[in-house]
């Protein structure tokens, strides 16, 4: 099963709609989480129909900013546990296992992020079952996750790190360019790993081959994040090729025996 999370910077643009169609056509995600939709539920219902999802839950934007949407298939029975402008927390069934999934849009205002981390820690304290979390956290764990701009003090990363440790969250292996956001500032471009996916120890035990891919950046200043949820390695089936014209050729039998 695949899950895609994307800060799409407004779902109304033609380029964004085109990208969404492409993502769904190529990856067929069971869950699609969009942040910064900047459009209301009525508009997103059209997007749902266009992309072919069975279900849609939204959080309305605040004026022309914010807004969340979770689109998902009927293959996954969903119970909503929390729904606000920063978090969508659900309970569902994957491969016969009851799991919890949290889709996040971290606060763009640094002073307000501690409130988001506190809510996640409250959730994590009582959560022993498999737990998966994905989205735009709007924060990084250290200066190694940014390029450009001024170097930040180590203490500024502590609240985010404490939340991750308190919840027992562990990063997944990933491929692609981890600098998932790019912005222009007065002193040049800044690249950061604002988007990520993590799981608790129980998730890593059951879905041990879950992996993440940072996709190409276009249609937004954030890369879409693709998580493939797997309990075992993906099998690659190779086709057996045989040219019938070999049948009557001299030496074929001997070559097969030797092989």
Kindly list the characteristics that best describe this protein:
6 helices; 31% strand; Deoxyribonuclease I, Chain A; 259 residues; alpha+beta; seven-stranded mixed β-sheet; single chain
The number of domains: 1
Structural class computed from helices and strand pairing? alpha+beta
- Which whole number gives the mean pLDDT? 92
What's the CATH topology label? Deoxyribonuclease I, Chain A
What does this structure look like?
- The chain is an alpha+beta fold and 259 residues long.
- It has a single domain, classed as Deoxyribonuclease I, Chain A (4-Layer Sandwich), CATH 3.60.10.
- The chain has six helices and 16 strands.
- A hairpin with a 2-residue loop joins strand 6 (87-94) and strand 7 (97-105).
- Helix 3 (113-125) runs parallel beside helix 4 (158-167).
- It starts with a strand and ends with a helix.
- The model has no long low-confidence stretch (mean pLDDT 92).
In short:
The protein has helices spanning 14-27, 41-51, 113-125, 158-167, 201-206, 252-258; strands at residues 2-7, 31-35, 55-59, 68-72, 79-83, 87-94, 97-105, 131-136, 146-147, 170-171, 173-175, 181-185, 188-192, 195-199, 211-214, 225-228. With 259 residues, it is of the alpha+beta class. A 7-stranded mixed beta sheet has the order 3-4-2-1-16-15-11, with helices on one face. Strands 5-6-7-8-14-10 form a 6-stranded mixed beta sheet. Strands 9-13-12 form a 3-stranded antiparallel beta sheet, with no helix packed on it.
């Amino acid at each position: 099963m695949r899950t895609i999370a994307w800060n799409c910077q407004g779902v109304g643009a033609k380029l964004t709609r085109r990208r969404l169609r492409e993502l769904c056509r190529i990856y067929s995600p069971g869950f699609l989480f969009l942040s910064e939709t900047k459009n209301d539920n009525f508009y997103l219902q059209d997007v749902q129909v266009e992309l072919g999802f069975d279900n849609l839950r939204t959080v309305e934007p605040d004026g022309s900013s914010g807004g969340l949407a979770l689109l998902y298939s009927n293959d996954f029975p969903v119970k909503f546990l929390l729904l606000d402008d920063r978090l969508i927390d659900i309970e569902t069934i994957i491969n016969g296992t009851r799991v919890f999934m949290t889709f996040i849009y971290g606060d763009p205002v640094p002073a307000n992020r501690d409130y988001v981390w506190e809510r996640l820690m409250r959730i994590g304290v009582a959560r022993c079952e498999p737990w998966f979390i994905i989205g735009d956290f709007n924060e990084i764990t250290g200066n190694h996750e940014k390029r450009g701009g001024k170097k930040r003090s180590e203490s500024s990363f502590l609240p985010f790190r404490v939340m991750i440790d308190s919840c027992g969250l562990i990063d997944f292996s990933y491929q692609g360019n981890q600098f998932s956001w790019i912005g222009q500032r007065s002193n040049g471009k800044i690249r950061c790993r604002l988007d990520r996916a993590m799981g608790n120890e129980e998730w890593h035990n059951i879905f041990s081959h879950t992996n993440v891919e940072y996709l190409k950046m276009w249609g937004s200043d954030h890369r879409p994040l693709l998580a493939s949820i797997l309990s075992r390695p993906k099998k690659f089936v190779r086709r057996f090729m045989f040219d019938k014209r070999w049948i009557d050729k001299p030496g074929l039998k001997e070559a097969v025996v030797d092989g």
